[in-house]
């Protein structure tokens, strides 16, 4: 009986899976990964770094190869180096709402972290339901495939459904697809080469 209770405690239910993933993300000091986003405007490839409580660095590979963006929550500003080399020359200081530092779908740098994504998914779940599909593999990783879908007519930031593939062990998202209320895909995001709690260089998020 004790063993069964421990298994139940360690295995989140379908409804609690997103909350469990968010809890693990919030417990991290930081992470870095390669983000591949495919949408109506084409592909974006970014080497993405995050350090709590909200420091973000994006090294662009596609479509603006060499550009670097750094967001610091202590200043509330995004520093942009269109041609790279942060630290060697001053970058442009911009608000996160500036079009120059927003993605093709309007995503803001200061709201680009995985925790914000999962909070949006959780908000959508409150408008509908979550269901767990059969386990599968993704790029050699065993993953949980979760579908979160709102009731008809309800959306969160245009999204009516999320498909998420969460790493079996860490619950870190490795792939996320979003769909509108008509069932048309808005964006497909792959999170590759994920490192949890890496040792960042001291000047990695320096302005």
Automatic annotation (TrEMBL):
<feature type="domain" description="MucB/RseB N-terminal">
    <location>
        <begin position="162"/>
        <end position="206"/>
    </location>
</feature>
<dbReference type="GO" id="GO:0015031">
    <property type="term" value="P:protein transport"/>
</dbReference>
<dbReference type="InterPro" id="IPR029046">
    <property type="entry name" value="LolA/LolB/LppX"/>
</dbReference>
<comment type="subunit">
    <text>Monomer.</text>
</comment>
<dbReference type="InterPro" id="IPR033434">
    <property type="entry name" value="MucB/RseB_N"/>
</dbReference>
<keyword id="KW-0732">Signal</keyword>
<protein>
    <recommendedName>
        <fullName>MucB/RseB N-terminal domain-containing protein</fullName>
    </recommendedName>
</protein>
<dbReference type="Pfam" id="PF03888">
    <property type="entry name" value="MucB_RseB"/>
</dbReference>
<keyword id="KW-0653">Protein transport</keyword>
<keyword id="KW-0813">Transport</keyword>
